[in-house]
Amino acid sequence: MNINKNIAVSDSGFVFNPTTGESYTVNPIGVEIIEMLKQEKSINEINQVLIGRYNADIVTIDKDVSDFINLLKLYSLIENQNAA
Questions:
Q1: Could you tell me which of 38, 62, 67, 41 has the C-alpha nearest to residue 51?
Q2: Computed over its alpha carbons, how large is the radius of gyration of the chain?
Q3: Axis crossing angle, helix 58-74 with helix 28-38, rounded to the nearest 10
Q4: For residues 65 and 60, what is the distance between their CA atoms, to the nearest angstrom?
Q5: Cα–chain center distance at 32
Q6: What's the pLDDT tens digit per position in 15-43?
Q7: Model pTM score
């Protein structure tokens, strides 16, 4: 799962999709997740990084990351990957 290559993300959390002209704002953890997606980290890798960085359990982190990724999909910020 990859974030669309043309998506621009600022350090302050401003997300811009030049294809659609739409923009969004995400919190600092959202920026971290997007940056890890750009690095092609798996969901499990992202969860482990966040667990190590924040005082939260795996169930909470996993749900929050999953919810955030579903929003990215909803707004077409994640590339569609077809099965081969």
A1: 62
A2: 13
A3: 70
A4: 9
A5: 7
A6: 999 988 999 999 999 999 999 999 999 99
A7: 0.86
